[in-house]
Amino acid sequence: MNFYVRIAGIMTKEAQDAKQSNWEKIRFNLWLYGLHFLAVVVLGVSLFPMVYWLHWVWKAMAAHSVALKIFVFSCSVGFGYFLFGTALIFSCVLAKNLFRFRIKPGLFRMYSKEALHWMGYNSLILIVNGAFLDVLRISPFQALFYRLMGARVGQGVNVNTAGLADLALLDIGDNVLVGGGVALICHAFDRGFLRLESTKLGSNVSIGLGSVIMPGCEIGDGASIAPCSFMPKGSKIPAKGVWGGNPVKDLRQERREQSKTDL
């Protein structure tokens, strides 16, 4: 009798798990539609100052010649783009706080609330990078946006890439140089789970173009990463080290060993 009771309990639990899994998948798809709608709203709100400015300029130039009107209007588009970008930054930060998109280190199920919040958080970063910051790399707008999104960014930081994600988990020291095409991320997917880990760059660090820095990595003060290098999850680079390769290795140590072999 107890055997059949246990079997029935297992079947009931499996049915509940399947029902829960289906609901989470439905919620996930609805969330995707919601994020697309949020993107439309954020972009629309951010475009308003630019469109209003251009409308005012066009009306103000109504009495002038067509050529002068078009010239002034064209110059105004450039200024309007900065109005749009600034509004976009603050609109995304407002949306992040309004919808409480928070990310923290940990291991979360693919369809969990934490994973959905992570998606919403990074969708806002993608919008700002794609529509504005990718055009204006190494600018004060970058550091402003990163800090407002929760990143710890030191002084004199130059970032020449749009490949930064999970900003709230980034800790960047002073005088750091991140080369073009670098992917600096704090997330990874592992067998149906989302893993979030903090990544830390010390002061005076340089990362060569095209390198990939995975979650949980730490780079010590004054260290240098060669171009097109790959740092696996949880890698630790000592201070003033020179590392590179796929996966990264100590290039100075490699040269010393090579010199001994040549002798």
Topology:
Layout: H1 2-60, H2 66-98, E1 106-109, H3 113-133, H4 140-148, E2 152-153, E3 158-159, E4 170-172, E5 177-178, E6 183-184, E7 187-190, E8 193-196, E9 199-201, E10 206-207, E11 212-213, E12 218-219, E13 224-225, E14 230-231, E15 236-237, E16 242-244, E17 249-250, H5 251-262
Helix pairs in contact: 1-2, 1-3, 2-3
Q: How many DSSP helices?
A: 5
* Order of SSEs: HHEHHEEEEEEEEEEEEEEEEH
Query: Spatial order of the strands in the main sheet?
Result: 3-5-10-13-16-17
User: Sheet with the most strands?
Assistant: 6 strands, mixed
> Mean pLDDT, nearest integer?
90
Please tally the β strands and state the result: 17
Strand fraction band?
15-25%
Shape descriptor reads: flat
Low-confidence stretches: none
CA-CA gap between termini? 79 Å
Q: What is the radius of gyration computed over CA atoms, rounded to a whole number of angstroms?
A: 24 Å
Instruction: Summarize the amount of helix as a percent range.
Output: 40-55%
Structural class: alpha/beta
Keywords:
single chain, 263 residues, alpha/beta, 6-stranded mixed β-sheet, 5-stranded parallel β-sheet
Task: Sum this structure up briefly.
With 263 residues, the protein is of the alpha/beta class. The chain has helices spanning 2-60, 66-98, 113-133, 140-148, 251-262, and strands at residues 106-109, 152-153, 158-159, 170-172, 177-178, 183-184, 187-190, 193-196, 199-201, 206-207, 212-213, 218-219, 224-225, 230-231, 236-237, 242-244, 249-250.
